[in-house]
Design brief:
Radius of gyration: 21 Å
Strand content: 5-15%
Shape: flat
Number of strands: 4
Number of domains: 3
Number of helices: 11
Order of helices and strands: EEEEHHHHHHHHHHH
Length: about 250
């Protein structure tokens, strides 16, 4: 097997809080020496050495701002429905693509994506920059970024429970088996919440975040047999459901 050195890149992942920082290393490929990069792109995600996803969010914001500016220039020629469709296709699709990995990130990072959502809603509603936007988001059935990530994970868990998800995801979700029979059957649909060895990254893993989010849902939602049953819940909005199902 021959490597294309020009397309080969490496990244060294380590804890940013570690007292011992890794030394400058390089990988030898043939006669070439490849040094690690500070960030790299894989499967559509921009990762840095500490896996903080800060670079990934920066890339999303840059691309989303570009599309928002283009749509705002032709906004006066469009009605609200057409503008909403354009924002959903070019901007919200960026926010929803693989957004389950954003679960558990600090608020200061999610705030950047939330500002993108607000800017898109202002263009759709023709609001000014500093006008309140909460009522517009409610009218558009648009969940905040934090809840969009939780909704994506809850949808994935539903597919795991129903058997529609890939096996590598279903293996991470295990039903809870009580040690003794209880009077209340509300925990019959609960999932096992494993312990996290690492608080910063371990609690963000799918194996732990998915059961936590699923167990907090009402029993009427968890006992649903189809995704449309979840769509009728007040907790989930139709536009987000369509975008997630499309992925």
């Amino acid at each position: 097997m021959k490597f294309n050195v020009g397309k080969t890149d490496t990244i060294l992942v380590y804890s940013g809080s570690s007292r011992i920082q890794p030394k400058d290393i390089s990988i030898e490929v043939g006669e070439e020496s490849i040094k690690p990069s500070s960030s790299d792109r894989n499967l559509g995600f921009t990762l840095n050495s500490n896996l903080t996803l800060e670079n990934h969010i920066k890339v999303i914001c840059k691309r989303a701002h570009f599309h928002i500016q283009r749509i705002s220039r032709i906004r006066r020629y469009l009605d609200q429905e057409s503008t909403t469709r354009l924002m959903s296709a070019f901007v919200l699709s960026l926010l929803d693509n693989g957004n389950s990995i954003l679960f558990g990130l600090p608020y200061k990072l999610l705030k950047r994506l939330q500002s993108i959502q607000h800017s898109a809603a202002r263009v759709v509603s023709e609001r000014r920059k500093f006008d309140h936007i909460s009522d517009v988001l409610r009218s558009l059935h648009c969940l905040p970024m934090r809840f969009r990530t939780e909704f994506k994970i809850a949808t994935l868990v539903f597919r795991c429970v129903s058997g529609d998800a890939p096996s590598y995801l279903r293996e991470l979700v295990k039903p809870y088996q009580p040690t003794r029979e209880l009077r209340s059957g509300d925990n019959s649909l609960d999932l096992v919440v494993p312990r996290a060895r690492k608080k910063k990254c371990g609690e963000r893993s799918f194996s732990r975040a998915a059961p936590l989010i699923w167990n907090e849902l009402p029993l009427s939602i968890r006992s649903s047999t189809s995704l449309p049953g979840l769509d009728r819940s007040r907790s989930f909005s139709d536009p987000i459901t369509r975008s997630i199902n499309a992925q």
